[in-house]
Structures are given as C-alpha cells and as structure tokens.
Amino acid sequence: MGIHNTSNDLGKVCEVDNPCEVDENGVVTVHMGRSYGQQTAGIPACLGAGSTVDLALAGCELTKPKA
Length: 67
Hints:
By secondary structure, the chain is mainly β. It has strands at 2-7, 21-22, 28-29, 35-39. A hairpin with a 5-residue loop joins strand 2 and strand 3. The radius of gyration is 16 Å and the shape is elongated. The chain starts with a strand and ends in a 28-residue tail after the last strand.
C-alpha cells in the first residue's frame, strides 16, 4: 500500500504538478506521464496511543527531523 503523491502530466521541468528527478550530480530528468508515491509500510511502527505519531517508539524507522 502507498500514497499517491504527484504526477508529471505535462512534461514540464520541476514545476508544481510536474515533478522532476535530480541525481547526485545535479542532472535533472523529467518523465512525462510518470506518477510518484510514498511507501506507507513504516508508519504503523511509529503509531502510539490514539494513533499519534511517535518517532521515538522502538521499531520506528521513519526518518527523524534534524535537530
């Protein structure tokens, strides 16, 4: 299961509703018609009482914000 995030429908470069990919060398690639999503498998391990998100829970492997 995942969450649909965005799609590039028009082939534009790095605009709202037209995402792009940037590699480690800064090279930009556009894939017209590509849809992007986010995995959700890691979320349940981070849910505490009342379905609150608790990134400190044992087993929670979601990325923590930098201090």
